[in-house]
Design goal:
The chain is an alpha/beta fold. The protein has helices at residues 56-62, 68-75, 147-154, 160-163, 191-202, 221-231, 239-246, 261-265, 296-300, 342-352; strands at residues 14-16, 30-32, 52-54, 93-95, 102-107, 110-118, 126-132, 135-139, 171-173, 211-213, 235-236, 267-269, 272-274, 278-279, 286-287, 304-306, 309-312, 318-320. It comes from Elaphomyces granulatus.
Length: 353
C-alpha cells in the first residue's frame, strides 16, 4: 500500500503518484503516474490540471478503468452504458516512451528531464529518473528488484553515468513495502522460480483438466503468458479484462514499448492479424474470468483453482498474496470521496455521529 505523499523535495513543482490537493503547497506544474494500481491513484479522478506523464500502457489502461459497482450494474443491465471513471483525463495524460530522456517545460524558465524505466511490477509500470538544475532523483514506484532487472539498470545507457560513472543521485525514493524486520520477508523466490513451480504442478494434471486463476489485480500477466505457452491454450477472460488489455494491441503506441503486449493482445504479421492469448472463448483450459460472472465451463468442469502465494516461511508455510504491494482488489475499485475543505469534513463527521 503506497503511503507516499507525492512531494519530491528536490523538485517541489511536481507530484508523483498522489494527486490530492495539499493546502500547504502550491499546485504542481507537472504530475507523474508510475502505474495503475489503485493506491497510486488517490485524487486522480478529480484532477483537472496539470499534465500527467506516464507510460503509454498506463494511459490506455487508466482511460478504460471501470469501478466495480458500475461494471456490475452494466453487466446486469441496470445501467445502459459503461462508466469509465478516468476517461475525462484523456487530454491530460501524456505518455512518454521508456528509456528515452525527455525534456519537459514546466514554465518558460523551468525545465526538467525525465526518463522512464520498466519497473518489473505490472503492465505499464515504470520508474522515473528526474534531472534538472544540477539535481537528480529516482522514484521507483512499486518494483520487483530481481537480480536480472537490477543488472539491466546497471548497464542501461541512460543510467551508466550514475551506475558506473561519477554522477550521484541526490535521493532515491524507494519502494519499501517489504522492508520490515519480519523473517517472513527476508527472501523471496524469483518470478521465474514461481512460474517454474506453477508449470510443474499444472503439467502433472491430466491433459483435459480445466484451471481457474483469479487475476484480481494488474500484475499477473506473466502467469497468463506462461500458462498459455506451456499448455498451448488461450486464457479465457471476461469482457472487462479483454477490453482493457485489448486496448494495448497493435494499433496502440504501447504495443511498441511493452514486450508482453503482443503475446497478450495480438499483433499484425504482414496482412494478417495474429491474436493474443487472451480470449472470450469459454472452451479454453485456463480461465481468469471474474468470480461474480464465472463462466459455465469453470463450474461444470470442476476446475482446479490456482491461488498465488508471496513466499514460504522456514517451516514451509505459505504466505498468501493479499495485495501488500499495492493493487489489492484493483480490478474491483469502488468510489472515493475527496473533501479538501477541513470544515466540510468536520460537518460530515457530525452528521455521521
Amino acid at each position: 500500500m503506497s503511503t507516499f505523499n507525492g512531494i519530491v523535495e528536490e523538485f517541489p513543482h511536481i507530484r508523483i503518484d498522489y494527486f490530492r490537493k495539499n493546502p500547504d503547497k502550491p499546485p504542481p506544474l507537472a504530475c507523474f503516474l508510475s502505474h495503475v494500481h489503485s493506491d497510486h491513484l488517490q485524487g486522480l479522478e478529480s484532477l483537472r490540471s496539470p499534465f500527467v506523464y506516464c507510460s503509454a500502457a498506463t494511459k490506455e489502461l487508466l482511460l478504460r478503468i471501470e469501478k466495480y459497482p458500475h461494471r456490475m450494474n452494466f453487466n446486469k443491465g441496470i445501467l445502459e452504458s459503461r462508466k469509465q471513471h478516468y476517461k475525462h483525463l484523456a487530454k491530460l495524460l501524456r505518455p512518454i516512451p521508456l528509456n528515452v530522456p525527455t525534456e519537459l517545460e514546466l514554465t518558460p524558465q523551468l525545465r526538467i528531464r525525465t526518463t522512464l524505466f520498466n519497473a518489473n511490477h505490472c503492465t505499464g509500470a515504470v520508474m522515473f529518473l528526474i534531472e534538472g538544475d544540477g539535481k537528480a532523483i529516482i522514484y521507483t514506484g512499486d518494483i520487483r528488484a530481481e537480480t536480472w532487472w537490477v543488472n539491466g539498470l546497471i548497464r542501461d545507457p541512460v543510467l551508466i553515468p550514475y551506475t558506473l560513472g561519477d554522477r550521484r543521485l541526490d535521493k532515491v525514493y524507494l519502494d519499501t513495502t517489504f522492508a520490515v524486520k519480519s523473517n517472513i520477508y527476508r527472501t523471496f523466490p524469483s518470478k521465474a522460480d514461481g512460474l517454474k513451480e506453477l508449470l510443474e504442478k499444472v503439467l502433472s494434471y491430466p491433459s483435459d483438466t480445466v484451471f481457474y486463476f483469479r487475476a484480481w489485480t494488474f500484475g499477473y500477466e506473466d502467469v497468463w503468458l506462461a500458462l498459455s505457452a506451456a499448455l498451448h491454450t488461450k486464457i479465457h477472460v471476461d469482457r472487462y479484462l479483454l477490453e482493457l488489455y485489448g486496448s494495448l494491441g497493435f494499433r496502440s503506441q504501447s504495443s511498441r514499448w511493452m514486450d508482453e503486449i503482443p503475446f497478450l493482445s495480438g499483433f499484425r504479421l504482414g496482412n494478417a492479424f495474429v491474436p493474443g492469448c487472451l480470449t472470450a472463448d469459454e472452451s479454453s483450459r485456463v480461465h481468469s474470468c471474474g468470480p461474480e460472472f464465472m463462466c459455465a465451463s469453470v463450474a461444470a468442469e470442476n476446475a482446479v483453482f490456482i491461488t498465488p502465494v508471496v513466499t514460504r516461511t522456514q517451516d514451509g508455510s505459505e504466505v498468501p498474496e493479499v495485495g501488500a504491494g499495492g493493487g489489492v482488489r484493483d480490478l474491483y475499485q469502488s468510489h472515493e470521496l475527496e473533501l479538501s475543505d477541513k470544515l466540510a469534513i468536520e460537518q460530515l463527521e457530525r452528521l455521521c455521529r
